[in-house]
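Researcher: Structure prediction, please.
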Amino acid sequence: MRFPRLLPLLRLPPILFAVIWLAVFLLHAPLLRLPYFWDGAGYYIPAARDLLLTGSLIPHSTVSNAHPPLVMAWLALWWKVVGYAPLVTRTTMLVVAAFSLFGVFRLAERVANTPVAIASTLCTALYPVFFAQSSLAQVDLAAAGLTFWALSAYVEGQAVATVLWFALAASAKETAILAPLALAGWETIGLLTRKSWLRKLWLDRSDSGNQASNSTRVRRIASLFVPALPLALWYAYHYAHTGYVFGNPEFFRYNVAATLSPTRFLLALAMRVWQVLGYLHLWLLTLAMALAMWMLPPLRDPNGERRRIGLPVQMVFYVVVLTYVIAMALIGGAVLARYMLPAVPLVIILSVSTLWRRLSIWSVVVACVAVAFVAAWFWNPPYGFSPEDNLAYRDYVVLHEDGEHFLEARYPMARVLTAWPASDEITRPWLGYITRPMRVVRIENFSLDEMISAADFRSNYEAALIFSTKYEPSPARWDRWQTWTELKSRFFGFHRDLPPAAAVRILGGHVVFSEQRQGQWVAVIEMEHGEMQNAELTMQR
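Model: Predicted structure follows.
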């Protein structure tokens, strides 16, 4: 790739940021008015709205999960200035996404060169998980973006900037503290290393090993613990106001206490490795990198052999990626791909740099990978995945909009049996799905056991809003392996949602609305006594 006229402009940060933001905005323009989705609707939007209305950092309209409030404060600020609306929310999050991509560009340019930085930024922006998360009101992408800025400052030796960016990242999401702590551990190992041939693995290693350089290293190690201080202060504040530190007891049990099993850790570890190396067509890039390293020598330019990313910088990337893979396999009830956003762009940078160094048509390969990433926005893989990882989340939102509009129009006074997050969607009009709140009878999900239990108190509701709570490919080849299904049910909360026809046989009544899109579906069931009550209301009118 050659950019003779573009390169000088890209060295101007305001112009580069404006270009990135405009491109991101145009790509997401059709999605900006969608109502809020899943965890955004269930936690982050209510928490930010509470901050806007009451000034409280601790949410009261939802149970606090103890996530640091930086992103919620960012949303509340722009709602205060511009107004509360999904368009404002999503546009505000796109600013965060553009800033994160700017961080990817800056990091890749510092450790490699401008062509690699442009290609890496493009691939990151188009990677389905990053793309989908860019306009969602969640905190993982913000924490990842601030981590990229921190890593850029770290490899440049800017100690104060490193501390600042890592502190902000941890204030966006608590798991962002993993990166500075991992680097502190890596630096400590380097400080204790005595063999001179190993010193080339660390940044700023001197061959003399004198006391002054050791003191500098000690100070650098100590500075990497400083970003934990704002996080610790937040937890102290949270404990003083709620009586618990790491979120409510159920949140802590689901994400920490219930995950500490060797078998679950190994399964989750395999899933995390897949997410950073192969998930949603990422394997095309990493496989191309591996083949280039194995089969091709470095290319030579007029100035000599093309340079690789320095080994000490590579080790920094490997340490961060490995830390996230292990830590996110150990904790986190849901093995969500967005938790790996701080790691995946580092893999992309390493892969693109390797292709640039060894393959003459590297730009063609990168273009093919970019096309594959865009295809993965629309094409759902042949295995279960979270709808928030590509445009399946749009299908979910449109389905729920249609089903809940029908429900509100036909049964405005009904008590509705449903599960989260639809239970929030139809009781909180400010989430964008309905115009006035409805009464809800909530169950956990639409599995066989839950539906049989709901049938025992069917007189408590007049209608049921049921939907697919997870994406399941058809046919579900992996789930034919009974052992795998049992392991998923035991360790990852897997269940099968009953389809509308089966639900009707258990609950009674009949389906009055149904719709499906690419493996997801929604349906409204009218109960028999609900039909009678609806007729009585019609006669009274």
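Model: The chain has a mean pLDDT of 90.
Researcher: Thanks, that helps.
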